[in-house]
Amino acid sequence: MKIKTLAIVALSALSLSSTVALAATTTVNGGTVHFKGEVVNAACAVDAGSLDQTVMLGQVRSAKLATAGSTSSSVGFNIQLDDCDTTVSTKASVAFSGTAVNSTNTTVLALQNSAAGSATNVGVQILDSAGTPLALDGTTFSKAFILNDGTSVIPFQARYYATGAATAGIANADATFKVQYE
């Protein structure tokens, strides 16, 4: 009986393997893999997680941004520098670039237009660790932070800033940054 069962199991396994062996191979198109990076000659390298990050400001009631100059609560974010060598430089500062809402509010980022409808009379401010709004001209750098050997983290904050009575809608903005070493 055991031999008969063993023979049936062996025969079944052989039939399955021959079916798999006769199956046609199929190839389909895949996608594209992008490899992005940069080799730098600097005291540190910007951490990959800091290069393209999203700061979630969340939902804020338009009533909180009803008058020019009113702000939402600040949300913290960091720019992390890796592989720092303090024998090369001991300090780093950051400058942000972006489109200002107008020439009188040069520390307020304009919102991106959205097909679904953008909020109006509001922008985004980037603040240093002391809560001071930073200019968005790409040439005005934050205060210098002392670097550590290895990893250094530079803290910032972001918040909504009303330029008038804000109306509801999507409120996204983008800024780029660069790091200066001293």
UniProtKB/TrEMBL annotation:
InterPro entries hit by this protein: Adhesion_dom_fimbrial (IPR000259), Adhesion_dom_fimbrial_sf (IPR036937), Adhesion_dom_sf (IPR008966), Bact_Fimbrial_Adh_Pro (IPR050263)
UniProt keyword Disulfide bond, yes or no: yes
Pfam entry (one): Fimbrial
Residues making up the signal peptide according to the UniProt record: 1-23
Gene Ontology cellular component annotations, sorted alphabetically: pilus
Compartments, record wording: Fimbrium
Main localisation: other
Example of a GO biological process term: cell adhesion involved in single-species biofilm formation
Domain of life from the UniProt record: Bacteria
Family according to the record: Belongs to the fimbrial protein family.
NCBIfam families, alphabetized: PRK15194.1
Annotated protein name in UniProt: Fimbrial subunit type 1
